[in-house]
Specification:
621 residues, alpha/beta, seven-stranded mixed beta sheet, 24 helices, 15% strand
Length: 621
């Protein structure tokens, strides 16, 4: 097998040209086999195999640098840089990351995980190269989806001023920017990507500029050329910005891409190479259902069906059902997502109420301000977004929503530890970054029933409010405890003495387990469902301090700025902490938590039931 010859970085350059296609097939087979076991981003990687091969064949890595936007399409890159053995532990604890990581390899030039960042990062590397007098080639690879993010255009606007080489590869797998406009486009594109054309064009412009009145002639030629190209050449958006556009080129034609990358390296300035690829290429189920195989669970290769069937509803499913009911009851309810209708559970709402559903693309900042405008116009907007992506719109939440105290609902999915995607996707900061904003209110449900109740409460709330819930199966326990949701009020589930567990959201289930174990050890244990993180229920906190030896706060958020910190502040300000009442805070560490199984991560960082019980019993000694 050819793939067996790829043991070290740049080994691909030893492969014969006639074997490129065979190697691409072997890479696809390898990825399908491995990801079917570990899970991971399959569709995007299958589509980028030849593109990655062409880049590795055209560049001198690691001196040259590739920045992968988002980074979920970097599996072939990892394979070609000697990390084949790492795929057995892909996305597992202490295993290989599913994204580029500088600490993992010198061939990973920049850590990525969120979209629309690669051009900015690449431009920074270009400027660093130029200031240091280096000669390396810098390439940013960005997808058509990521170009819906405004940051990409901010970077391109800046890159247009360059007078040194910077290559931007547009990996377009949906033809979302433009189609090839006939034979004339192909003809002109072939002319303008040849060495002779580039040399001739530069020579003519320089000669004319040196003659009297030549500058005006050059400007006239450029205007005429631009007008003609506008009719026949795709990519004029980039040309008009000042970025040379090359393409489109078949992203599965390795030698064709090597040729165009070679010519792109000759451009003195920013150059956009438009590459057309097919997401999921080479694997039938992924070609047919690319969305399903974007982030795939372990699956049966023959059918593409997940190996583990889901029998219980998750929190996203519950949210989806509630949204449809809310939409039916109130025509003012509208839903906004940033390119995640499936992931956030809004697909059903979109099908039922297409006129009240808005997918703004990968543009969280715009999504939030757009929602503010909807609210100012008298509607009831619900922004459904992952916790780790909402942090991208912090200024918009503060400036456009909260200053005006507008009734925007933030449905925050994937809050807390999410597992295999690692540091860039863990939703462990939302309590912190939201609670410091005046007028913001924050809730977290203990189970699926409370998620439904809180959504109904949030839609009728007159002000900004966030509702955060975790990834995974929706907890169905404690159904009998369903007191009405009241603003800023916690819920006493069990009221005893000695130890008071004050748990937030997903940690209520853990607290129930902790309570059972402590009870079996002879302790009296109260359990409080905090419900609100902002404002906290100070009355309940102080009541717990009156008749308990130990208060234990429990949350799936970092320590700084979280619920526990607010409880401590309340206790200190009311002088409620003393020898007869102490408080400990169970939180996630103030750190970036790596990828791995969620339950294993909880154990490692000490927020599982065993660790909490041990900490409590040690404190009681």
């Amino acid at each position: 097998m050819l793939l067996e010859k790829i043991e070290n970085p740049n080994d691909i350059k030893k492969i014969r040209k006639s074997d490129y296609e065979t190697l691409a097939e072997e890479i696809r087979e390898f990825l399908i086999q491995k990801i079917s076991v570990t899970g991971g981003h399959l569709g995007s990687n299958l589509g980028a195999v030849e593109l990655t091969m062409a880049l590795h064949l055209s560049l001198n890595l690691p001196e040259d640098k590739i920045i992968w936007d988002v980074g979920h399409q970097s599996y072939t890159h990892k394979l070609l840089t000697g990390r084949k053995d790492g795929f057995d532990a892909l996305r597992q604890y202490h295993g290989m990351s599913g994204f580029p990581k500088r600490k993992e390899s010198d061939y990973d030039a920049f850590d990525t995980g969120h979209s629309s960042t690669s051009i900015s990062a690449g431009l920074g590397l270009v400027k660093a190269r130029d200031i240091k007098g280096e000669k390396r080639t810098i390439v940013s690879v960005i997808g058509d989806g990521s170009l819906t993010g405004g940051m990409a255009y901010e970077a391109m606007n800046n890159a247009a001023k360059l007078d040194t080489n910077f290559i931007i590869i547009l990996n377009d797998n949906k033809m979302s920017i433009s189609e090839n406009v006939g034979g004339v486009s192909k003809y002109l594109n072939n002319i303008r990507t040849t060495s002779g054309y580039l040399d001739l064009k530069e020579g003519i412009y320089n000669a004319l500029s040196a003659t009297k009145g030549g500058d005006g002639m050059v400007k006239g030629i450029r205007r005429a050329k631009a007008s003609f190209k506008q009719l026949v050449i795709p990519g004029m958006l980039f040309e008009d910005m000042g970025i040379t556009y090359l393409g489109p080129v078949d992203g599965h034609d390795i030698e064709g891409m090597i040729k165009i990358i070679k010519e792109a390296k000759r451009v003195k300035g920013a150059v956009m190479v438009h590459v057309m690829t097919q997401k999921g290429k080479g694997y039938g189920p992924a070609e047919k259902h690319p969305a399903r195989f974007h982030g795939a669970e372990p699956f049966d290769i023959e059918t593409g069906i997940p190996s583990k069937k889901r029998t219980e509803a998750n929190y996203t499913d519950i949210f989806s059902t509630v949204m449809c009911k809310l939409g039916q009851r109130d025509e003012r309810v509208v839903a906004i997502t940033a390119a995640m209708p499936d992931g956030t559970g809004l697909k059903r709402f979109r099908n039922m109420y297409p006129d009240r559903f808005f997918d703004v693309g990968i543009a969280e900042e715009h999504a939030v301000t757009f929602a503010a405008g909807l609210a100012a116009g008298g509607l009831k907007p619900i922004v459904a977004v992952y916790s780790s992506f909402l942090q991208r719109a912090y200024d918009q939440i503060l400036h456009d929503v909260c200053i005006q105290n507008l009734p925007v609902v933030f449905a925050i999915d994937r809050a807390g530890l999410v597992g295999s995607d690692g540091e860039t996707h863990q939703g462990i900061f939302d309590f912190t970054y939201l609670s410091g904003i005046p007028n913001m209110n924050i809730m977290a449900p203990k189970n699926k029933w409370e998620l439904s109740d809180m959504m109904k409460f949030a839609v009728n709330f007159e002000g900004p409010i966030a509702l955060r819930y975790p990834r995974g199966t929706a907890y169905a326990g404690l159904q009998e405890f369903r007191a009405p949701v009241e603003y800023g009020k916690a819920e006493w589930i069990y009221e005893e003495s000695e130890i008071a567990l004050l748990a937030v959201g997903s940690m209520v289930k853990t607290a129930e387990d902790v309570r059972d174990r402590l009870k079996s050890m002879g302790h009296d244990v109260s359990l409080v469902n905090a419900r609100f993180v902002k404002p906290i229920d100070e009355e309940t906190v102080l009541k717990a301090a009156e008749n308990h030896r130990l208060i234990v706060t429990m949350e799936e958020n970092v320590a700084c700025g979280g619920y526990g910190e607010k409880v401590l502040e309340c206790l200190y300000s009311h002088k409620a902490l003393n020898d007869s009442c102490k408080c400990i805070c169970v939180t996630l560490p103030d750190a970036y938590i790596e990828h791995g199984n969620v339950e294993l991560l909880k154990k490692e960082i000490g927020v599982d039931a065993d660790s909490i019980v041990g900490r409590i019993t040690e404190e009681l000694k």
